Amino acid sequence: MRRGLLSDLFIGVVAKRLTLVETITPKSNQHEFQGTRPLRRLLGDNDRRGIPTRFIWISGEQEALSEEGFMSWSNVRKGKPRAPEYHLYYSGNAVTELMQPSDMLFLALQRDGSILVVVTPSATIQNQLVWLFALEEQPEFAFTFQEIDGAHSAELDFAARYILDELGIEPEEPEADRLDALIEPFGLEFPKTRIFSELARASMPEVSAADDPDLALIAWMDREEQLFKRLERRIVAARIGDGFRAPGGADVDGFLSFSLSVQNRRKARAGQALENHLEAVFDAQRIRYVRGAETENRNKPDFLFPGQAEYRDPLFPDARLTMLGAKSTLKDRWRQVLSEAVRIPEKHLLTLEPGISENQTDEMQAKQLQLVVPRRLHGTYRLTQQAWLMDMDGFIEVVRSRQDA
């Protein structure tokens, strides 16, 4: 299925690490950036006042804050004989108040002329955005410019959409009619996640987990995400159309409750979908496993190989046991898997999160936790990490060698 391009959304981006003078602190209240050459390449030489701007602050633990504001671009020496000097002013708001020296700032000019500003202290979010915008090296304190054109425009594949979703950006589907036809039988009701997962796989008969488990897992997850969001859009639109009214006026509590249910459904569904598709991969590969088997202290690893009976048999060799945790996103939740199977010292954890920071992967290695990432996402990680990452093919080879021993 055809996907959009990043250049459909953005014209260009600049990035830099913030300095003290650029943040709002008791020592600095300037609300501006010096108009360096990269900024001039992005914004041009004409003055622009009151540019609509969305400011986002996002950490690594699903903490995010978004504010609407504006920026203004002007030559403060306009009409004077001296060389032009540009400044980019920003409106103070809750996001800019959180900015700290050494935070990363990404300033992207969107196709509609508005600006997106993302500020993050998180190394993982920084890695993801550097990859998304094809910035060749980690920007330091000076602005780095990247035009987003055909040569530097990522296809909006699974990894790109994952990152855009973190920013609250939902690109249009180029082939929405085809997706709508697939979900038509569900009307305005969500089916069980397993049914949705089966539909996603059935809609892609050309994809084979027996031939390429890495490709299959990503393709199935991507398709299910597309289908889910199309159906979600229909259901949410219908609920909003009905209005949120109470006898005393607007039903604010009802609206907030509905909004929270939408977010919770997204999170829960993603994890269940990942496990559903992993089951299909293991079945196609003829791997013995149990999903949700119970180990010590009522812990339940997502997948246990070859099974619960073998795990509970003290005569079965520890070296032939394998466990796999599965988390669509990690954040700091990866540590949960460390205690899920005492007999297995080296744990495996699969994630679909791109570009996790080196600090986190270094800690995983120290804790004997092997990260498993589908091969198509390896490019979002740094070269020093890629040599250590395991893909689905590699994990299946490990499990099969232990089961055949």
From TrEMBL:
Domain Restriction endonuclease type II EcoRII C-terminal stretches: 228-396
Gene Ontology biological process terms in this record: DNA restriction-modification system
Organism: Rhizobium subbaraonis
One annotated GO molecular function: DNA binding
Tree of life domain: Bacteria
Protein name according to UniProt: EcoRII-like protein
Annotated coiled-coil segments of the chain: none
